[in-house]
Fold:
Amino acid sequence: MTDSRGAVCGDGAFPSGTLAFAGLSDVSISEDIPVEGDISVPVGSQNVDDVFSTLDEPVKDTILRDLRAVGKKFIHVMYPKQSSALLRDWDLWGPLLLCVTLALMLQGGSADSKEDGGPQFAEVFVIIWFGSVIITLNSKLLGGTISFFQSLCVLGYCILPLTVAMVVCRLVLLGFTGTISFIIRLIVVTASFSWSVFASTAFLADSQPANRKALVVYPIFLFYFVIGWMVLTFSPSQ
Amino acid sequence: MSQPDRLQVPGGLLLWMNAWFSSVFFMSMFSAELEEAAELLSADPGASTLSLASSGPAGSTRVDLEDEDDFGQESSELLGGEKQTSGFWTFEYYQSFFNVDTVQVLDRIKGSVMPLPGRNFIRHHIRNNPDLYGPFWICATLVFSVAISGNLSTFLSEQGDPRYHYRPQFHKVSIAAVVVFLYAWLVPLAMWGFLTWRQGTERQTGGYSFLETVCVYGYSLFIYIPTSVLWIIPFEWLRWLLIVVAMVISGSVLVITFWPVVCDDTKAAAFTTVAIIMLLHALLAIGCKLYFFQTAVHAVPVIPTAAPNRTTATQQDH
Structure:
């Protein structure tokens, strides 16, 4: 039998491979073709977990697995390159850890102040989380393709350089005083702030439309600038 | 004293989040007026852009008019359709307010800093595409620039005092946030409501929609950002000069924008409206300066005033 193009189909039921689509409408299958084989859905990691549930393993393993994932993401932030690990397996443990650490370290300064003190614990929390949410909403409203929690994850993890700067600042304040300590702290905070902005831009820039990149990067700049300001102006109580 | 402190920032932030959400609520409530105003306005710029673009002979201009009108009608329907078909609970409704590019935002900022008497900010720069990106982020930047500059100026002015211990004064951020965001949302709401009420049934030389009013006010606040940074310089005359310059520039943007709408009204109402616009703007600037950039007058200790008393007393004794 021939198909509409005039080429000869194979005898029996199977049309010739190269003209399969062209001639299918005219081909009538004379026999029932037994279909053999297995149809199996590719097993993702969740299925593996279902088979091996975390209830069966010691708690230490569960915790260490999450900690290792968080640690791997820390390394990705410190050496930002075009990897998608931060985006693909997002988690909010790292940002929470960094936020709590930063907020705790910003306490204990000017403790004798009645009004004019540094940021309270709640203020740091609110600024970091509300700031991240607003920046994520902003980038989504401008047409970004990144998902909500992925963006929260990236912005939270990129606070890591500023947390490191906070640790360094507290150490500097123990050792030095006066103008020297201020200059050292200024250099450290400026370097870590630009590192944060650079790292988060490296992860987030690709998902934005090309003519709106600056509109998305500016709020991130403002966000890390405010956090850097909080780190820099931390003054210990006398 | 510490208890109210802990409630201050969450309270302040709740207040301005409330202002944000309540303004969204108002926008949805007045969405009918918005659509009408948007469609009427979109009919206009079709003609205005035409007068700039077409330079051919009368015959082709007329043909262009019809074509442009059709296109204008189509685009206005599209624009109106965008705002009509998606309700305020969908994400696309809000995405239509962020439909700007970097170049457009920069152009609008430039237009707010350099007001020219002929150029209406709304007609010339916004052109029926109001955005919420500019007003929101300009207000946020202004909040932090005023708070940080105020902190820096206090630090610089009190540096000579040995008893002065640097304090970050973080609670001022929450106060600045409440003040700036309330101004940027409530005053345009009041202005838009007042203008719509005065317009009454005649909306041909249309009033502006609520979003365009918010846009104008938001972009007009941009000049205060470099002004607040320059306020760190500790000279009083310079600060007052900067206030005057900023108020003139920013106020003239508002007046040039609102004058064509208001001048149809009675003379008294027109002048009163313009005067109130300038007054509120001036109050914001002066209030910010007085609260955040307090000069060190109070910090001068009582010793100099006590010393002359003592010396005069001793002189009197002797």
Confidence is low (pLDDT under 50) at residues 28-33, 43-84, 297-318 of chain B. Chain B touches chain A at residues 1-2, 5-6, 9-10, 13, 91, 94-95, 97-98, 100-103, 105, 133, 137, 140-141, 144, 148, 151, 165-171, 174 (CB under 8 Å). The longest helix of chain B spans residues 171-199.
